[in-house]
Write the structure tokens for this entry.
Amino acid sequence: MENKGLNKMDDAPSTRHHPLPVKLVNGAVRLMNVFGRGKADLSEDSLLAAAREQTGLERFGDEGFLPGLRVLLQALESEAQLNPFGRLHAKAEITASLKNRLWADACFEAHPEILQRKISAPIVIVGPVRSGTTRLHRMLAADSRLQCLKAWEGFNPAPRSGGRDSDGAVRRAEVEKLLGLGRRLNPGAFTAHPMEADWAEEELLLLNHSFSGLSPLGLYHIPSYRDWFLGSDRTPAYEYMAKLMKLVSWSRGDPEDKRWVMKTPQYMLDLDTLVKVFPDAKLVFTHRDPLKTVASTLSLMWNFAVHNTDLPLRKPIRDTWLGLCEEMARRSMTVREALPPSRQFDVHYGDMNRDWRGVMRKLYDFAALEFTAEAENALGAWLAESEREGRHRGHRYALEDFGLSRGEVDARMMFYRERYGIPYEDGKA
């Protein structure tokens, strides 16, 4: 929901927006710091050692994650200005990813057949943040003929016994608890992007385990990591993501030929890598008015980041994510020009609002999948439930909250609007 109440950027210190539990954590840890205790250790050696100790495992297998981890840790220490809560948050997230890599490697060693599985003709949704990718993804995931990544599997993809999903309930319960805590501490972020343990979720969660995902840029102000990220070759991260997808489907016992439906806005940045790793992917591109997507993206990222520092964040969020929105559009457009039209399908946000069934009939035809009555009913039921619950209702955002005008965003994004014929949602040019 657009907020038209603010006329200029409100860049107050983040402490003004910290809930009581975050304030209590910060106060308690700072008191412990006075006595030389309590500071979360974000050194590489400490984090690797903690992951090994907590799993009882030693081998990470492919160590292609180390460059990203090292750049991230340096940026967290030198640029992010983390408060104690932010340090604890970063340590917990990084340690969890390292532990999952250890558990995953143990599975791959014990069951090498996992890596022989095929991922055939996945339907991959590619589009700007806040352009309807989540709605489209979760609608398609309601079709029982398709498989998707669930939120709990994204956070905890690896069975811990080395066997087939013997501890799935434990891993799911951990994520359910984590998401419940997130909703209490950060209701703004979960209003903008609702999550439940069993809902379809984007593969960004898997890329995060290689420290090559966009997530850190939505949690912390780390310009050096952004620069490294934009210039890095993320092929190893995508290859590892594919391995984790095979592990997830194997641990469920899904048939190998069950098609995946995938999505994350990061694919706009990495479209060349995506089609290299998934050469027969069917690409579905979503489009929405950049005035809406940019404003909503800035708000979402601010909500995710605000608890991790005491400093004002709106300006750094604006500068980082306005640039990323433009870069994502430019990179994806360049790669699309070299791809055959038969691999590409475009979906406009307004068309989905007006006639989702008509859009879906064409999409299913593009994907060489029959749009059966069962599929139509399942997708319609998901959409009706989502609208009934008002899952995105209450997210308020405005360009002015971040010191931006319509003209400034248009100047950066008009090339994208014109290329795909994207209308202004308010009808004003």
About this structure: The longest helix spans residues 84-110. Residues 269 and 328 are 5 Å apart (CA to CA).
